[in-house]
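Case study 2.
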Amino acid sequence: YFVAVDNKIHKVRYSAENDEYLLAEETIELYNWSNSEYANMLPKPDTRIVEIDYDKEDYFQCSAYDMSFEDFQAYMKKCEEKGFSWDEDNSSSCWANNEEGYTLHVRYLDYMKMVEISLEMMN
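Prediction:
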């Protein structure tokens, strides 16, 4: 996959027969966000590339790319403004809860410059 000049994500495959790389016709938008109840409880990441990994009735997870550690920390502050209180923090992987009983996990992966965000209801 790569981001092309049209600002979309393209899948590329290599053709050994033709000794060339070929673009798939299907593209993926750079920034995907959901209108689900869970996604609406979270601030949208301030970055160019967001991919939704899971968007289910009782669980939401996305990956936000092109983010620095400072961006990760700023996102954590925005989560606090949305009512989440951080319980556990080991600097790059943090857990928070809100008054309604939802648990938020935000993790920074430095080698990918990515923030992984997940939200679920804990019983």
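DSSP finds two helices and nine strands in the chain.
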